[in-house]
Amino acid sequence: MTGIWYAVGVGPGDPELMTLKAVKRLRECDTLAVPHKDRDQCVAYKIAVQAVPELAEKKCICLPMPMTKDRDLLEQSHSEAVRRTEDCLRQGENVAFITLGDTTVYSTCLYIKERLDEKQYHTELINGIPSFCAAAARMGIPLVNGKEELHIIPASYQIEDALEQPGVKVLMKSGKKLSEVKRLLEKQGRDVKMVENCGMESEKIYGSIKEIPDEAGYYSLLIVRDGK
After folding, report:
1. Residue 228: is its pLDDT beyond 60?
2. One CATH from 3.40.190.10, 3.40.1010.10, 3.90.226.10, 3.40.50.300 for 4-126
3. How far is 136 from 46, CA to CA, in rounded Å?
4. CATH 3.40.1010.10 spans which residues of the chain?
5. What percent of the chain has pLDDT over 90?
6. How far is the C-alpha of 14 from the C-alpha of 63, rounded, in Å?
7. pLDDT tens readout for residues 157-184
8. 70 or 224, which is more confident?
9. How does DSSP assign 73-132, residue by residue?
10. DSSP structure string for the chain
């Protein structure tokens, strides 16, 4: 009998924000899978092991997931991750693949799930608290209120058209484009707040566009409203 593959969202950074279900699946799994070449350097692992210390003693497979738009490199890494995961599932091991935030929002785990589903393995997604919900809570502001719409936008791509949508915009994955995104938002007179490394020890909160630096870490999230 083959094992079950779980994608487990560990939330944005604070281990206390992990769900009871996520903790239970991690405690019960036979094998832990981390999206990194080195378990101890994986941000998701550093979060999860604080809530589930016994993870340090579990069998672990490291599945490097390069941050690139190169289709060939992505295909190669995803195929290798599936191959190594299958080896465990065929032995009847339940595998928990940990991922930051929520498993359904821009998560690498979805590429693995799609391939395992095609091979008819049993897969499940375990939700985690999304970073944009945690960021709004850390700043003590509503994400959306009343009739406001919410738009989740990957800021590493073209965002001009998306910014014209009504309501609140969440810009994720700004990365190296932060300075460019900042200039555009400043020019448009937007009301912008940003949280860098939400829930982590290195967390920083910026209450206005003028406070936001031109460079920040990969885990930086902007909440954008029309100017007042």
Report:
1. no
2. 3.40.1010.10
3. 23
4. 4-126
5. 83
6. 23
7. 788 889 999 999 999 977 678 889 999 9
8. 224
9. HHHHHHHHHHHHHHHHHHTT--EEEEESB-TTSS-THHHHHHHHHHTT-EEEEE----HH
10. ---EEEEEE-BSS-GGGS-HHHHHHHHH-SEEEESSSSGGG-HHHHHHHHH-GGGGGSEEEE--------HHHHHHHHHHHHHHHHHHHHTT--EEEEESB-TTSS-THHHHHHHHHHTT-EEEEE----HHHHHHHHHT--SS-TT--EEEEETTS--HHHHTSSSEEEEE--GGGHHHHHHHHHHTT-EEEEEESTTSTT-EEE-STTTS-S---SSEEEEEE---
> The pTM is what?
0.92
Type of residue numbered 114? E
Task: Name residue, tokens 């936008």.
Answer: 153
Q: How does pLDDT run across 26-76, given as a tens digit for each residue? A: 999 999 999 999 999 999 999 999 999 999 999 999 999 887 778 889 899
Is the CB of residue 219 less than 8 Å from the CB of residue 131?
A: yes
As a whole number, mean pLDDT of residues 120-127 equals 98
Average pLDDT in the 205-221 region? 92
Please tell me the class of the 131-225 domain.
alpha beta
For residues 210 and 92, what is the distance between their CA atoms, to the nearest angstrom? 54
Q: How far apart are the first and last CA of the chain?
A: 60
